[in-house]
Amino acid sequence: MAFDKLKYDEDIYYVSVFLHTDEESWRYEVYVNGDEVKPIFIEHLYRNERGAAKHYEKYSQYGYQTITYEWENSEAHPCHVEIKYYSLEHELIETRNYQVNYKDDIPHTIVDSEGHEIYSNDNFEKNIEELINEVKGLIIQSVRMTLEKKHSLFKGKIAFALFEYNIQGVFPPTLALASEEEAAAEEDPFSSYNAPDLQYFSERNEYEFDFYHKGTSKYSVLNKHIYEELEPDEGMALARSIYIDICKSTELQAIFEEYLDLAEDFHITAYDYDAFDLEVMLPLTLDENIWQKLSAKKQAYEEARPYLKNT
Fold it and tell me: How many structural domains comprise the chain?
C-alpha cells in the first residue's frame, strides 16, 4: 500500500491511496478543501497471467467507465481496447474502440474505430517547435469538437474557462467552465479558480472534453521534453508560455463565442495546480481591463481582512 498527497495550500490538497497485488491494482483519490472532503474517484485494474491489462474500472460521483482489453494470440499481438462510459443510472453514454499495434513489444500506433491514427511513435522524431504548434492546435480543435457535440449541456452565462495541468503531465490539460454564479460565489475572487469545485469540469463524464481524439503521442513527447529534458525552471517557463498562447488565441475565443453564452468579462486562463501559480498566470492570460477589475476585487478582499497579509 502507498499514499500520495498533492498539496495546493495548507488546507487544500488531494490524497491518493494505492494498493497493488500480482493480479490487481486499486487507487482511491479524495479532494480536501478545509473541512470539506470530496471523493474524486476509485479505479481498479485487473491483469492477466502475463501481467498485461485485462479489465479496468473507474467510478466517481458522476458516473463510471470500463475498459476491456482483448489481446490477439499472434506474433504482433495487437490489443483491441473497448471503452464504455456510463451514467450513475447505468445508462451507456458512449463506447469507443481502439486497436493498439506493437513493434518490438513496444506500442507503435493506436488506431480508433474510424481508422484515425491517434498515436504514433513517429511523432518522437519531430522538431520540438513543430510539435508545440501541433499540440496547441490539437487542444484548440479538441475544444471545438467537444462544444459542437455538447454545447447544449452548458447552461447560463459562462464567466471563464480554466485549463489546469501539472509539470509531470503538462498535456493534455483538464478544462472547467465556470458559470457567473460560481465565479461570484466566493468572497475571495481567486478562490473560484478551482476546477474540481466547478460543475462543468472535464473530469466528469458528461462534460468531458476529448483531448485524446488524436495526437496522444504528441502530448507524450512534449511532456517528456518539458519534464525530463529541460531544467525545472525552463520546463515550467515553456509550459506557461504554451498555455499563455492557447489562452490568448483568438481562434479559441471565437470557438467559445460561437457555442456558449459568455459573460461580459469572459476570459480564458490556465495554471499549474502543483505550483499553484494562478496569481502568476492570471495577469499573463487576461485582457488588461479584465485583470484590473479582478485585481481590484482581490485587493478589496484583502484590505477588508488585514490579517491575511501576515499569513
Answer: 1
Q: What is the pLDDT of residues 260-284, one digit of tens each?
A: 999 999 999 999 988 889 999 999 9
Long-range interactions of 69-74: CB distance < 8 A, separation 24+: none
Give the Cα separation of 174 and 195 in Å (integer).
Answer: 8
Q: What is the DSSP letter of 286?
A: S
124 backbone dihedrals φ, ψ, rounded to 5°: -70, -10
Residue 187, domain member (yes or no) = yes
Owning domain of residue 131:
122-311
Residue 258 lies in a domain: yes
Any idea which residue has 490539437 for its cell?
A: 138
39 found inside a domain: no
Distance CA 55, CA 267 (A): 40
Taking alpha carbons only, the member of 141, 111, 139, 106 closest to residue 124 is 106
The pTM for the full model equals 0.66
Beta strands in 221-280 (DSSP E): 262-272
| 3-state SS class at 163 | strand
